[in-house]
Amino acid sequence: MGCTTILVGKKASYDGSTMIARNDDSGSGHFTPKKFVVISPEEQQRKYRSVLSHVEIELPGEPMRYTAMPNAVEGKGIWAAAGVNEANVAMTATETIASNPRVLGADPLVEYHAAKEGEEELAGGIGEEDILYLVLPYIKSARQGVERLGKLLETYGTYEMNGIAFQDQSEIWWLETIGGHHWIARRVPDDVYVVMPNQSGIDTFDLEDAFSEQKEYLCSADLREFLSGNHLDLSLDGTLNPRDAFGTHDDADHVYNTPRAWFMERYFNPHTAKWDGPEAEYTPVSDDLPWCMIPEKKITVEDVKYVLSSHFQGTPYDPYGQYGDKALRGAYRSIGINRNDFVSVMQLRPGMEQDNSAVEWVAFASNAFNTLAPFYAQVEETPEYLSCTTKQVSTDSFYWVSRMIAAMADASYGKSLFHIERYQDKVMAKSHEIVGRYDKLLQKEADALKRQQLRRSANEEIAEMLQEEAADTLDKVLYELSNQMKNAYSRSDA
Q: What's the whole-model pTM score?
């Protein structure tokens, strides 16, 4: 399924935080209700069985508590998606990517095969449904996350190609699966950001480091043999480009994927390269867009939200645009689409007590019309407004209210955009104020239990504010859309 990921190193962020963020998008033709919860050690299974692939995996006996964004409707598995554990290690899983036919021929995907007459059931590998649940409760650093997932991939295989981000206060690591059992991972340099739009992204890989000091690169144990034995390295100078070796450059990529990376890098580095016009160095269809770049200024949470909400504003490709060539509007797949399930921005802040460092910013539904709100991650439960999602539409649920706001605002875009902008700015400003206020209270409080209570109180206050502002915005966009009904008349009855 489609997703978009951005990773921000600690020297590239505005406050020295590491940040990882991802839009989780439903596949075409459906919407997946999500909720924001805490999974306690008691809730974690000891023997896991995947719903989709039926793979069974024994899990370690001492899991940690962690936040998660699972499916709200049962039936297709947990799909925990994104979260932060007790050790302040965060993870987002997954960004769907693709491998080329040469890779998939050399190391086929491990697909599930149902039992047939005379044949037993054959379990598949692990996938997006499973990965966060199998890894996050058991790791105490981002590097450990790469190592644990790597072993799982080598042992059980996977039935799909994915990219996964791991984060702690010091480091961010990005892992990409290759075929059924192989993988590579690269540490994100501290001074850069990374963009990932459903494509193999890593564009350089140091095999020498991966098989020696492993400072910046990690990979499956037999990657060298896999490369040479299957003639996968396409470089002329011996410098491995994983994007060429393992990825795809299909025509569909140039409509669906690559333009998203172009927009994000164009936003963060407007003067670094020429992005527009006939002499552009990079275009929406460039296959050589950098995996990572040093931004021209430090990146904020608001910046991350803006690019992950993009519908190509300021370009001819904006489906809501009112200028330029009409034929170009909607030419490329937007980042903020109708099928965004949620976005999470996990911020691990420096110079703070361990239990106060992690803040998880959360929004539901279409990013073009929603707003982020922050929540302390080291808590035992999340506010009901974000955790109560069911399959039933309800204004008591932030997920469903966000869906309603988005649908109504889209249908009344010209009149409702002002309300959406006010809503987003107001919630973000109030959120920063509340977190700043509680950070000061937490710094003064030494008792662990009272600190836990303060974090819970902060989250509840943010949720109450969020519910109030969302309800007010829903009222406003409903009014605007109601005035556009086809049976509307300007004359009053009196």
A: 0.97
